[in-house]
Amino acid sequence: MNIQRWIARREPNWRRLDTLLRQVETQGLKSLQALEIEELASLYRSVSADLARARTHKLGMTLVQELQQLTSRSYNQIYQGSRRQEWGAVVEFMRWGFPAIVQETWGYIAVATATFAVGALVAWWYAWQDPVFMAIVVPPHIIEIVRDRGELWMGSIVGMEPLASSSITINNLQVSFGAVGGGITAGLYTLFILVYNGIHIGAIATLIAQYNLSYPFWAFVWPHGSLELPAIFFAGGAGLLIGRGLLFPGPYRRVDALKLYGYQAAKLLFGIVPMLIIAGLIEGFFSPNPSIPDSLKYVTGIGLLALLFRYCTRKKSINSSI
């Protein structure tokens, strides 16, 4: 191997890679054209092979160190830079993408919300009329605590907040994923989950009202419910979107409709996850805390709901991306 000839032949590639890296390091990966990005990746692989050859043939520490620096810089910009771009895309979605998809699919979310509300109203009506219905819907231990002790059952969370918060979050995620996944049953299972949860909440709320515990009960529910319930409605809307793609593809082929509406549902689900995590933390640590006044819990819940509404109705202006 003629070392000088090999270096002379390979050196233009090293210089070109160094030039591209300097541009990326000062202006970011977005400053490169698509072909330049492909060239950067190709030169990185090429220089990595040159480094391996230089080490194998022991071509001198200076050359090896220079090639090592080039490959390290390339790796940092290609892989860590792409990760920064990915996180930037996540931030951009949470700032503007999620509100946009909520506005785009508000009709499906409204249907999901109405379905839940119908279930709650039906449960409210029957629970007041028939004690047997109450016994069927509400777990017996909850009825016992409220009826016999005149207390709420949420105090059991105090002292085990981390475990309670994680289990609550997992349960809420399961309900939401079930509502979204229920879309593959043409939305029937999604509707079932919404009605079932509405009936459950409506029956419990009626039980609480019968024993004059509504004020502390809703003080507990409001802080986390202001995020948790909308998240479930969004999940229901996502499931109905998938059901729409199956049943009513419109001008699209059914497979194309499923891709379109499934993509919208996935974006809704992506935005729901942080809402449920925050709601789980609030329900585990804030809502059951007896040292926090009920009035403050109401104010917190109303404030969070107002912020969520404002967030979901925001629109991206031309100047927002500057």
Write structural notes for this entry:
The protein is an all-alpha fold and 322 residues long. It contains eleven helices and no strands. Helix 8 packs antiparallel against helix 9 and helix 9 runs parallel beside helix 11 (294-312). The longest helix is centred in the N-terminal third of the chain and has 44 residues, at 61-104.
Keywords:
322 residues; 11 helices; elongated
Write a compact overview of the structure shown.
The chain is built from eleven helices and no strands.
Q: Which spans have pLDDT < 50 for at least 5 consecutive residues?
A: none
Helix content: over 70%
Mean pLDDT across residues: 85
Tell me the total number of β-strands: 0
Could you give the distance between the termini? 54 Å
> Hey, roughly how much beta strand do the residues contain?
under 5%
**Major sheet description:** none
List the helices and strands and how they pair.
Blueprint: H1 3-27, H2 34-56, H3 61-104, H4 106-129, H5 131-137, H6 140-149, H7 161-181, H8 188-210, H9 214-247, H10 254-286, H11 294-312
Helix pairs in contact: 1-2, 1-3, 2-3, 3-10, 4-5, 4-8, 4-9, 7-8, 7-9, 7-10, 8-9, 9-10, 9-11
